[in-house]
Amino acid sequence: MDLELSDEQVWIEESVNTLLDRQWPAAQDAWHAGEPDRAQLWEHLVDFGLLSGVGTDLGAIELCLVARAIGGHLASVPLLGSVAVRYALAPHLGELPDRFAAVLDGESRLSIALLEPGGGWSTASTRATVESKRLTGTKAAVEHAAVTDHLAVVARVDGEPGLIIVSSGSPGIEVTPQSSVDATVPLSRVTFADTGVDAVADRELSQTILDRLVTVGGLLAAAEAIGAAAAIFAQARHYASERRQFGRTIGSNQALRHLMADLHVRQASGWSTTLFAAAALDDGMPGARQSASVAKAYVSRAAREVAHGSMQVFGGIAFTEEHPAHRFLRRIIVREQQFGDAAHHERELGRSLAAGALRERVAV
Amino acid sequence: MQLVETAAERALADEVRAFLSSESFRSADLPRALDDRMAVLRRWQAACYEAGYVGRAWPSEFGGGGRAAVEQIIVDQELAAAGAPEFVNVVGLDVLGPSLLNFGNDDQRRRYIPPILSAEEIWCQGFSEPEAGSDLASLRTRAVQDGDTYVINGQKTWVSWGQYAGWCGLLARTDDSAPRHRGISMLIVDMSSPGVEVRPMTQITGHAEFSELFLDDVVVPKENLLGALGDGWKIAMYTLGHERGTAALPRQVKLRTWLDRAVSLAAGRALDGRPVLEDPEVQTALARALIGIEVLRHHAYRTVGEFLSGGAVGPESSSVKLLSAEAEQRLTGTVLDVLGPALLDGDPEEVAENDFWYETYLYSRAASVYGGTRQIQRDIIADRILSLPKE
């Protein structure tokens, strides 16, 4: 019953942070890094063992450590989909068609295609459909779709939502860039018109795999948001200790000291709850999905609060385009939405609290 | 990182549950009259001590169990989950016992620790004063050396269980010339000494768990000094930090039992002919209360981990304290929000349940005040974690 990182986990986090410090521009310049820079950073991360270790050396805890570092550096790489899909499938590879293992074994970059135009993050609202190994449907806000090798698509197979893998270049796929509030997380609308699929998960495993996918996906999104929030907060704290107004350092004003104390609590506890949920998922604890909902709901509000508060500390300078504050805020907003925002998870948690109590009531 | 209980931890939790089912004792069963309540609570703590559930991690040479710190946390969580009342000698266990263990000499430990554990001797703390609340260092109570004794004069307030206490851990100024934090010492005061007067104070809940304490030429032998002369502030800060860090885990378990109770109440009470709990807004409000409690638990695990692996309870305990007050106040406020009309209705059969929620709500206002106000906790974080410039 403790949440202390092991020496190896600390090493992974430090190594990834060092790698990002060296191979990726500082946050205020990350916006301008083009596709060659992004591809090169990705190569470095793959060389580090990011993909081959998922499910063995890298559990949800380690992946969240990496995601937090990515968020703190505003790095632009197809990390989330590539590792979340591997993590979701890893325990089941023996039971799945060989094609899955073939896709995941290599250095394949993956995007998750779950959300549909006008739909929510619940997989139950999926309309995309696979019939006779052909996929038809439209997906929204697919991340890094222009560069990834495969798409992990949530689609109905025999009427039930399941996970399928499609090669990005397959005939019938059309990728249309969408506006993204964070240019370092490019989003696209992807339509599939009678597209041949690579691999379809067995029906008995579909729900288990999808649950695991959205759970780990939500945690990775939360970890990135907390990384971004912690980074802007660290800058605000530094600024408050240097900037002088009215003849005194602004960080000596109680209004700002107390604001920053609250922001510290939000980002520190946001990380604790993310870490707890990741550990619960790795350990296969029964409440893991619920813990992930708690973490995603909390972090979705907390990270934005930390960014807002930090911008308030900076004052007017944080309202300029050149200042990195808004870059972090933009990353936080994108991650807040993915795999369900606070309201989505609060509704889910509320429903499950109520379902138990109302059932007991009927039984009495 | 370790979330799953070890076999030994599970065995201990099972043992405590078995003990609790044979003792079958819940806060709800306590007598209302304060004297009777006190007597029952002392017997309860004594029975738990007998079973090895009090001071389990304290050194065995002073009557403790000599076990790992995590075992006491497991025991406390099981007791809280079963709705058992908190140990009545809480001030001795959470504040002055740890002070004695860390700063006392062996004579003091041998003399005072065992009866703290068994609740034979109740302890109170004489820290706050009418003019020294959050600004504790401005306290005015004086202890003047006179031969082999100190003579104490002054007034203390917020003295929990003062009217039942046999001993008081008292902060007093022993040196007027020293800087204000340094001139304070901690003294062990026999509450039956001549010149000690206790006046109970009634709280907003209607109970009188606190007292005012008046000291008029109270004579204390020199050997009742805890630590060195002038160490009082250091000892008080150590123990308050300790209390903040370790009390949160049983607290979150208790909050969870309250949340579950609120959820079943919302399932049982109707508004306009429908169970209150069927309203999606009610469900979401309760989910937010759940999130507050869960995040408190997760953050407390992370800070307690540092303590369990041998570290001190550091300033991060102030974050835990803030989250704890927030979770408690959100929960009790939510119950009023979602069950307000049902609580006002006051069906005679449901009076006890309604009173519980009003009392719990009123009590929760203190959560952001006691043990250092919310603002004091923010100052600690600003100074000691964020290293922001001082005002």
Q: What can you see in these coordinates?
A:
The complex is a heterodimer of chains A (364) and B (391). By secondary structure, chain A is α+β, with helices and mostly antiparallel strands. Chain A has a domain of 152 residues: Up-down Bundle (Butyryl-CoA Dehydrogenase, subunit A, domain 3), CATH 1.20.140.10. Chain A is globular, with a radius of gyration of 21 Å. The two termini of chain A are 36 Å apart. With 391 residues, chain B is α+β, with helices and mostly antiparallel strands. Chain B has three domains: 82 residues, Acyl-CoA dehydrogenase/oxidase, N-terminal domain (Butyryl-Coa Dehydrogenase, subunit A, domain 1); 108 residues, Beta Barrel (Butyryl-CoA Dehydrogenase, subunit A, domain 2), CATH 2.40.110.10; 139 residues, Butyryl-CoA Dehydrogenase, subunit A, domain 3. Chain B has a four-stranded mixed β-sheet with strand order 1-4-5-8. In chain B, strands 2-3-7-6 form a four-stranded antiparallel β-sheet, with no helix packed on it. In chain B, strands 9-10 form a two-stranded antiparallel ribbon. The longest helix of chain B is centred in the C-terminal third of the chain and has 29 residues. Chain B is globular, with a radius of gyration of 22 Å. Chains A and B meet through α7, α8, α9 and α11 of A and α7, α8, α9 and α11 of B.
